[in-house]
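Retro notes, structure queue

What went well: the backlog is down to a handful. What didn't: a couple of records were mislabeled last round, so from now on we paste the full input next to the output in the thread. Example, using Transthyretin-like family protein from Diploscapter pachys:
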Amino acid sequence: MLGYGGSDMCRYISCPFGQYCWNGNCLSSTMGGMGGMGGVGGIGGIGAYGSRGLSALTSAAALYGSSPYTAAAATTGALAPYTMSGYGLGTGIGGLGTMSGVMPCNLMQQCLNGQICVNGFCAKSNIAYSGSQVMQSASTCMTGSVCPVGEYCMMGYCIKNVMSTTFVKMRLLLRIAILSIAIYYAYSDILPTIRKVQSVAIKGKLLCNGKPYEKARLKLYEVDPVVDTLMSEQLSDASGEFNMKGNDTEWTTIDAKLNIYHNCEDEAIECWRKIQINIPDDFVTEGAIPNKTFDAGILNLNAKYPGESRDCIN
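Corresponding output:
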């Protein structure tokens, strides 16, 4: 309760039903609402206080004690910061605020930032609160205009409906998921025929120090974005030769490669030397049996090939 003045009684106790708390004083919600609708516009506050002369208005008691403009001032968003008048009549221009006393509430979070919920109505608070509260909307619907999607009209203002936008997104995602499942089951018999079975073949000979290299490990892959598909694997024979083929089913032309793992002049070092040979698309055949073979030629494993690496798994 620290920081309240002596007039801030409704910060300690509740106002009677039908009234709201304004700067520490209980005011009629009907009077405030009608004054706000009367077209005060951008007037921050109007007050006449007779013999007070030049003074700062610090509480509602000082402003409304003898003011004939109580209804108008009660609906504005800010008090006049100072008043200058020889006759005791003062006006101050302030920013247009939210009409207090006309927006119903059950929780403080339902009120605009800078307001609290008092006796079922939103009222201006003199405590800074930075929690999750309704933000004031820039759109109005006083003249019958339609609010933007995701907002609803309340007392002439368009208020954002958080649950509405979230629900719409969830409903859209659910519909997409259901539609995808329905399409998959409806066309599951057709999809395999759209994809094409394709095959490749490759042959060659491996040498190490001019001699045939036996038992080199060879793996024929179809390159995929995530995990490559192994189509075939074998070891080179006693003459260092290999001849292998494989096939895979894809939507587009397959990308085939041959990985060769060996230890030519590298037996003392752990892991395998790895060479990769890409097979041109011209040697890809539609169907499970290839009708063309890519000849890799004679490969001297003593040499270091471009892109050569080391593999400890295969």
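Agreed that this is the format going forward. Reviewer comment attached to the example: The helical segments are 29-37, 60-64, 70-73, 162-186, 191-194.
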